[in-house]
Amino acid sequence: GGPRPRPGQEVSVKVLGALEDGGLVERDPRLTFVPGHGDVVEALELGVPTMQPGEVSFFLAACRYAYGRPGSRRCACREPDVPPEAPLLFEVTLLEVRDGLDPQPLPPAARLRLGSQRRERGNFHFARGDFAAALRSYRLALHALDGPATAPPGPEEEEELQEQRVKCLNNCAAAELKLGRAEEALAACEAALRISPDNGRALLRRGQLLADQGRDAEAALVLRRALQMDPASKVIHAELSRLAKRQNPLSSA
């Protein structure tokens, strides 16, 4: 049915994934990704480039090529959880191969589903300590959420898109910190707060990062705002106490 996908091309596939007992755990009628970008399981990363458009293939994947030793919790495209150390049988149909990375217009619901899939994949990498791959997946998720739409989102869809963007930006900040890039982490927090000024997670991390830079007065303002969102947070109380001692060391003597 035509040439196999080349490096850098985008593919769309229909995927079914089943456990050894036949239980269906993954179903996606149109999964779109670029092989090599790390936002799908490795069985698909390796297998789909061997296919031709229209071909149906079966891939029996050991757990390391599926969801690894920890397995995976459910998301929009998976039904029950994937148990730890579970091999999976994938039935894959290669629907389309496209040149270039220009995002195609999608309905808002499809943008949300694709963004969620890529964010989940980032969480998969993050949990395994591959923070560069996690960051790549979170950025791909943002790319999907911000891509062109076939129609304007309704009020509920727009609210969910914004919530997903904030989650991705917070996750980007966490990955940047793990990679030792404090300035990039701070920028991600500030981007999240432009969307959701009262987001407690972004406020706390921004306050911590400002404190680490010695910007104590700014940090205190941000952390007090975070405390208003979560008055019982021991972490925020501890950060404010640390700042107070640093600003007035004699008070702790």
From TrEMBL:
InterPro entries: FKBP4/5/8-like (IPR050754), PPIase_dom_sf (IPR046357), PPIase_FKBP_dom (IPR001179), TPR-like_helical_dom_sf (IPR011990), TPR_rpt (IPR019734). SUPFAM superfamilies: FKBP-like, TPR-like. GO terms for biological process: negative regulation of apoptotic process. It catalyses: [protein]-peptidylproline (omega=180) = [protein]-peptidylproline (omega=0). It holds the Pfam family TPR_16. One of its GO terms (molecular function) is protein folding chaperone. Gene3D superfamilies: 3.10.50.40, Tetratricopeptide repeat domain. This is peptidylprolyl isomerase.
